[in-house]
Amino acid sequence: MLTNALSLAAFCLFYSLVRERWNGPVAKWALVFLIAFPGSLFFLFLYSESVFIFLVIGLWYGLEKRRYGVAAVSAALLPMTRAVGAFAVLPIAWHALSVAPPRWLRLHERGRQVGAGAGSVKGSWLELTVGRDSEKSRGTAARGAAPSAPWLLLAAPLMGWGCYLALMWHWTGNPLEGFDAQKHWRVHSVWNLVDVPKFVVGFFAVTQWHGFTGSVLDRCMFVLLIYTLPVLCRLDKSLLVWTYWLGILPAMSGTFTSYTRFACCAFPIFIALGAFLSPEKANRSSKITTGLRWGLLLLFAVLHVLLVWRFVNFRWAG
């Protein structure tokens, strides 16, 4: 019951945020692709996906709306849900840099603009990277928000991580018991994040269409993520940071093990699909875009049903 309630709450909040940022058709199709995605079956069962995506969308909501209390609670709980939650510092740091850039950076940009003339303002690094957020930050400052508030949020994931280690120490006598448990699976490791050659070789180490390791399906889902990156870059560059955290880091840490399951929480993928394959896009190239939209949705649905069948029959589903 709680798993389904959290998933439903995350879906509703996701739809609301995407509709506000872009439009209704994009939000509708982004949500449809999210629900139909093969790995989304784990939103229905007793796994960490429902809690994790609820907290991720809560963090996104808190940053987008400048509700830093909501963002802080979400960011603190994320590391206690999954180890990768500690990397919530990445989108928080990008947000802080966007809405409250350090003084030295503002002075550097001002010097560049004065030295090059007014015509260079459009091409400044600050505008190209933060654009929309810099305008919102002025509104936040006008409402009296502390300029340091976004930067203080960086402590939230670290505090959550510290609480996790303290709890593990209290419960087991070893704060790193969670890491030691992963050694039995011999898959996930933080050192994999810096072992790029292993990651590249692992991508081509295909052994079966779907299984614990060597899954073709897991690698296809990663390729899908890569194809969405140009769309995300056009929509909002900050989504690339979220994609790196939620989509690329899990692929590297486990060398694609269970990637289809983990990718269901990488919400920018579905925003990109909704934006690229929405009916508005179809008005410009109707047949191709419509065919891609319905074809991808059908493929997701078939794979989703197939993985559910495997799951209930005690076969590997992710």
Could you describe the 3D structure shown?
- The chain has 318 residues and is mainly alpha-helical.
- It has one domain (2-100, 148-312).
- It has 18 helices and no strands.
- The longest helix has 27 residues, at 286-312.
- It is globular.
- 37% of the residues are buried.
- Residues 118-131 and 137-144 have low confidence and may be disordered.
Helical content band: over 70%
Radius of gyration using CA atoms only = 21 Å
The total strand number stands at: 0
Please summarize the sheet with the most strands.
none
Class inferred from helices and paired strands: mainly alpha
Instruction: Tell me the domain tally.
Output: 1
Overall pLDDT: 85
Question: What is the global morphology?
Answer: globular
Relative strand content = under 5%
Task: Tally the helices.
Answer: 18
What is the helix/strand order? HHHHHHHHHHHHHHHHHH
Low-confidence stretches: 118-131, 137-144
Distance between the termini: 22 Å
Keywords:
70% helix, mainly alpha, 318 residues
List the helices and strands and how they pair.
Layout: H1 2-21, H2 24-36, H3 49-64, H4 68-81, H5 89-99, H6 103-116, H7 125-130, H8 132-142, H9 149-152, H10 155-172, H11 177-182, H12 196-203, H13 216-235, H14 238-253, H15 259-263, H16 268-277, H17 279-282, H18 286-312
